[in-house]
Specification:
It is a single chain. The protein is globular. By secondary structure, the protein is an alpha+beta fold. Strands 1, 2, 3, 4, 5, 6, 7, 8, 9 and 10 form a ten-stranded mixed β-sheet that branches. Helix 3 packs across helix 4. The longest helix is centred in the N-terminal third of the chain and has 13 residues, at 32-44. It has helices spanning 32-44, 78-87, 143-151, 207-219, 227-234; strands at 7-15, 51-52, 61-71, 93-101, 113-122, 135-137, 155-158, 173-184, 192-200, 249-255.
Amino acid sequence: MAALVDRTFKLTIAYDGTDYSGWQIQPQKPTIQGMLERALVKLTRQRVHVTGSGRTDAGVHALAQVASLRTPNWRASATDLLNAMNVNLPPTIVVTDAVDAPDDFHAIRDAIGKRYRYQVQVGGQRSVFDYRYRWHLYHDIDLDAVSEAAARFEGKHDFASFQAVGSPRKTTTRNVKVCEIIREPSMSHGGILFSVEIEADGFLYNMVRNIVGTLIEVGKGKYPPQHIDNVIEAANRDAAGPTAPPQALFLKRVDYLPFA
């Protein structure tokens, strides 16, 4: 019998993070990584480490998280792996795509960009179906001011003011390609719906939620849009606004170069 050879797979995964303690495995807590690895044990009869492109926090969701894994114990197609994993995953987690990848593919190292979406509702009644996925604000927000402030994040800047305390990186400089406000149709419960979408070559810990919290301060009229320039220049977390809650944040996309 021929020796088994390691295969590398690239998975795209969607999940509702409401009931999970984030991506990364934690003792005695349900996590996305833990559920994926538990499913793979059933399929491969071995412990397979799944590497996600980033560690989403407790309560944060993903439309298209990307992960990599290596195993010699799966001989069927990547599509068969997708189907088999989904049979063994809870309904709140689904593998939406699976492909064979080069041996050296790594979900973190090879990522060249990401896009996040943060959803907000201003006013109106709370939706029993949507409240898990939006930050519901009950005061007026000047969306024109928020849009003007959002544009000031675009470009290459030091985002130290928007990094969570206690999570140092080698560099806090990131290139934000897009930071935009997307207005959405109002639902039957009334209110104003909008999303903040941010695309960059990389993100610091809690960077998106800290940016959103700062934008909402501008929307309330606490600061003018030009205040964003001062916050960026300060390179100090205390200069920025509060951290927006996690339940409204979605990892929308992770970008990679095409396989050669």
